[in-house]
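Limitations

Structures in this collection are predictions, not experimental determinations, and the ligand pose is part of the prediction. Treat each record accordingly. The example that follows, with pyridoxal-5'-phosphate as the small molecule, is included so readers can see exactly what is and is not provided: the inputs are given verbatim, and the output is the predicted complex.
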Amino acid sequence: MTASAPQRPASPWRLARRAERMNPSVIREILKVTERPGIISLAGGLPSPDSFPIEAMREATALVLRDTPREALQYAASEGFAPLREWVAEQMSQQGMAVDPAQVLITTGSQQGLDLVGKVLLDAGSGVAVEEPTYLGALQAFAPYEPEVITVPCDHDGPLPESLGVAKGARFLYALPNFQNPSGRCMSEDRRAALVAAARDIGLPIVEDNPYGDLWFDTAPPAPLASRWAEGIVYLGSFSKVLAPGLRLGYIVAPPALMPKLLQAKQAADLHTPGFNQRVVYEVIRNGFLREHVPTIRVRYKAQRDAMRAALEAHLPKGCSWSVPTGGMFFWVELPEGIDAVALLAKAVDLGMAYVPGAAFFAANPKLNTLRLSFVTVAPPEIERGVALLAQALRAA
Ligand SMILES: Cc1ncc(COP(=O)(O)O)c(C=O)c1O
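Predicted complex:
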């Protein structure tokens, strides 16, 4: 007789309901595959490492450690480093918003800003309105608060003001006016005005997320939504795309009424954003560094956008369509009806390229024949080769 194997005791851990709602990010899972050597990844939303201001960071780090090492390495204020908050307020003022530094909360990336607004504004079952498609990381940040996600119909210019009624009663609309992730679209001046007017009419606040606004190629985008309705809009900004994402530095600009609760949520989450990083970044940018640096990123990304446009035109078969982004990092491609970009991905990876299937960016009713391509992470010759491989996968399908 053989003894049966001893039964493992059941796990003593019982997950919270909110943890059941957490899912692995499709993008992160894809990125793991794309780390395989030889894969040309047009999937990740990673800024080009060639754009990182390494020398300026080195000098600023040395200065901070020389001049204020004790302060920089100590616990710090939850609101953020005061001179950096003043800098943010000044930048916002230049975009037509009168912002007091007291309205600025420095966050651990704008991703934390999304979590904090979710924590402060969403109850289980309360409505949160999103664009179609929308940033997957926001859907993930809001999901643990168990909201009902409402998709607002959109066209090439963003959410349709006349359809905003579907979101009446929601806690807020999450909007991405500049070079949206994933669609690349940029909202026109008229659409911004009409959207904010419609939101005000129905008392729907807006959370405006703007990590890509500085990455325009020919002309700057229109003024932020927040400049049109100061008390009804929370604005999220980030240093990830203009300096480096590894710093994990972003900010919330909030109406005074919301600030105390956001600050309490921030305190509970992580006490404060690393003070060392804040001081180093302030040291880098305090004398106008970004005025010189950001244009170099624009030139680089515009050339890469052009390379991808040329490759798409040269290689993608008839029936595929895309619009050319005027800034940011992404092309959004629609494949012929009936082609499933999720299923196609395995074939594309086999051939040696990767993209993100568009389905990941829909809160409901995913458009399966869509995909997102990033043009900033790889150099033009690889962009061309990656798009050619995508076309090969499509022809095989
Ligand atoms: C639309 C959008 N919001 C927020 C984030 C998060 O950025 P951060 O690095 O500032 O946390 C990203 C990152 O790619 C993004 O695309």
